[in-house]
Amino acid sequence: MEFEPKGPEASRLRQRKFSLLRQFQLPQDLLPGSLSVSYTRCGKPTCHCAQGEKHAAWSLTFMAAGKKRVERIPKDWVDDVRRRVAAGRAFQDALREVLAANAELLVLRRKQQPR
Q1: Which of 9, 70, 83, 88 could form a disulfide with 30 if both were Cys (CB 3.0 to 4.6 A apart)?
Q2: At what angle do helices 78-112 and 8-23 cross, to 10 degrees?
Q3: Residue 68 in contact with residue 61, Cβ under 8 Å?
């Protein structure tokens, strides 16, 4: 950029942007989407779910190639997948904030540019 915006607002935006960029390198194990649980009956007449508590079925819902995907998650993977989805969401939030800071800096540049 030929002209960088000046002033306390521009400085604050740049500091926040670079702080986020330092904090979030692109981790390799992030997951998109959301993890959810639903409760179902298995259909066996002698199972406890026929009369009482249903079975927990975990799934990860995400978009890939413009299509919604829902994948079943084994019960022993739930904690790991939950952590990776939360990390993915935090990364996406930080990225949105960096992009918003870039847009605000562009607006400031336009307003402060000598005519």
Answers
A1: 88
A2: 150
A3: yes
